Amino acid sequence: MRLQIIRFFLFISLILTSALLVAQNDLQPSSLLCEYINNPLGIDTKQPRFTWNFIASQRNKMQSAYELIVSDNEEGIKKNNGNMWSAEKIISNDNVNIEYGGKALQPFTRYYWRVKVYDENKIASGWSNPAWFETGVLNTNDWNAKWINDGSKNAEKDEDYYKPDRMPLLRKEFSVKKSIAKARLYISGVGYYEAYVDGKKIGDHVLDPGFTTYKKEVLYSVYDLTGMHTGKNVIGVMLGSGWWNPLPFKFFGRWNLRDYQQTGRPCLIAEIHIEYKDGSTEKIV
Questions:
Q1: CA distance linking residue 227 with residue 235, whole number of Å
Q2: Model confidence at 26, in pLDDT bands (50, 70, 90)?
Q3: What is the pLDDT of residues 39-62, one digit of tens each?
Q4: Which strands, in side-by-side order, build the sheet including 200-201?
Q5: Which residues pair with 112 in a beta bridge?
Q6: What is the four-CA torsion angle of 96, 137, 241, 166, rounded to 10 degrees?
C-alpha cells in the first residue's frame, strides 16, 4: 500500500513539473541589432530597422508574436515605457528588419529599445535587455558646418596636374571647459581624409569616405570623442584627392573622367557636438 502511495505522488509530481515547463516560455530574445549593428553610434535613416535572435534550451522553438518598444530615455525603457513607439502584440514570426513606426526621430539623439516575444504556445518571454541607437545627420540642413578647403585651385592644363601638389592640412584648436558627458565628431572629407585629435588618429577607417556620385551623395562618419580631456584640444585633418579630384585620364583616348563627374579641390565638413555633465551643450564647427 505504501509503495502505491509513493508511486501516486511521483506521478502527480511529474504531471505538475510537465505543466510548469509548458507554462514557461523557454524562448528569449537576444542579440538585438539596429540597421544590422549592435548599438550603432550614428544612423541617418528616419525609419531604422530592428533585428533580434533567440536563445532557448529546447529544440523546435519558434516565435508566434512580438512586442517592441522604443523610448528617448533610458529610465523610460527600463520601466517598459515606449514613449516613442509601442508596437503592441503583433502576430508575426518575423524577427528581421522590423521597420520603426513611431514618432519622428530627431537628429543627434540616442534612443533605447527592447523586445518581447511569444513562443509557439503563445506564452510571453521576459523583455530583452535594453539596446540603443543614435541618430546622426538626418537631413542636409542639420549640418551647422560648411564645406571648407585650403583655398588653392586646380590646374588649368592637363599636364599641370602631374606636377607636385601639396596635401591640404586643416587644424583647429578648441577648449573644453567642463566635464564631458558625451562628445561626437561628425565628419566627411573628399576625396579622402584622416582625422586626428590631440595627435591620435580617430577610428580605424582607411580611404574614407567611400566612393559615391558626389553631386548626389557624400558619405560621412560619426566618432565618439567622449574621452577628450578638459582644457585645450586640437583637431587636425589630412585631405587627399581620391576620385573627387582625379588626374586627367581619357578612356579610349577620348573621354576624360573629369568631364563626367563632379570634381574639385579636396575639402572638408566637420563638427563636434559636446554635452557636458551639467546639462549644457556646445558645437564646434
A1: 14
A2: confident
A3: 999 999 999 999 999 999 888 899
A4: 169-176, 231-240, 192-197, 200-201
A5: 71, 132
A6: -140
Distance separating alpha carbons of residues 143 and 187, to the nearest angstrom? 10
Q: Which amino acid is at 282?
A: E
pLDDT for res 253: 77
Q: How far is CA 218 from CA 158, 179, 213, in A?
A: 26, 33, 8
Cell of 274: 559636446
**Would the pLDDT of 266 be above 70?**
yes
Q: Which of 105, 182, 112, 113 is nearest to 138 (CA)?
A: 105
All three cell numbers of 196: 586626428
pLDDT at 12 over 80: no
Cα gap 145→149, rounded to integer Å: 13
In this structure, which long-range contacts are made by residues 88-92, counting pairs with CB atoms below 8 Å and at least 24 apart in sequence? 89/65, 89/118, 90/65, 90/66, 91/64, 91/65, 92/63, 92/65, 92/66
> What's the CA angle centered on 82, arms 79 and 84, to 5 degrees?
145
Q: Which residues of 252-275 are buried (b: 16+ CB within 10 A; e: fewer)?
A: eeeeeebeeeebebbbbbbbbbbb
> pLDDT tens across 184-232, in order?
999 999 999 999 999 999 999 999 999 999 999 999 999 999 999 999 9
